[in-house]
């Protein structure tokens, strides 16, 4: 048994009795303050004669407030009963209680705050003397929320969406199934590059997630000569993709700022790793002829047959890492 915080009482005046300017943040991030019983007209209760009011709490209610609005502070008893007519709580309010709140229109409010499960209830209010009053019930009701409102998936891969704090069954739908489909459990499968909207309909709400499907390709900015100091040479991958047979082709750019004409790469080594560090493929070549003039660059590629891949199953190249090693040289020099 406890009094409402005065802030909550002030909120009632603003929210239910259309007076005042106070506000209240919902208890939960995804909770919505909801009118369960909204006062329409003033009633007059006789002194010491119980007035009974019914109300129903919806699922996902986190807190409930039972309020009496009057023209002046007064004394009353409030008893709350469940559908089996068992008392679940009660409170005594007196006219001298500091928990009374008022507004510029002269309306006073006070009441009870508690947490009850969803279901049917009734409240018995007994005023000490004849009183004009209004009765109201508000509740913090959790609203269903979707796990992601924006999602990026690599073509050919899946990710799961979910909804929490829902009471009903979720119905999933894709706006463009050819780009990304979704099953009854919220599993999204990326089909081809593009954008689409996945919707989850539940509890009278439509929740949305914007899905972007990207090609299963490794893409990185190409090296430029300005990035490599004079007297040095470097090379790194800027692209990788599978062909229709599952072979892996990797594209590289070599930068030559050595001050000499480069003729080859020596002890070339390439490793392709997943975002989690697992090795997908490796490639080695003792000497690869590659003629690159000084202060210039050259693009080249290698293809690793599917049979030579350490992981035969297609992996997410978009988030992969490609590591390179090797030295540069020409007829008389090695760098």
Fold and architecture overview:
InterPro entries: Big_2, Invasin/intimin_cell_adhesion, Semap_dom_sf. The structure is a single chain. The chain is mainly β and 335 residues long. The chain folds into three domains: 1-141, Jelly Rolls (Sandwich); 145-214, Immunoglobulin-like; 217-330, Immunoglobulin-like (Sandwich). Helices cover 3% and strands 53% of the residues. The strands form seven sheets. Strands 1, 2, 4, 7, 8 and 10 form a six-stranded antiparallel sheet that branches. Strand 18 and strand 19 (205-214) form a beta hairpin. The radius of gyration is 35 Å and the shape is elongated. The model is unreliable at 1-11 and 13-29 (pLDDT under 50).
Annotation keywords:
3 domains; 26 strands; elongated; 335 residues; mainly beta; Immunoglobulin-like; 53% strand; 4-stranded antiparallel beta sheet; Jelly Rolls; disordered N terminus; 6-stranded antiparallel beta sheet
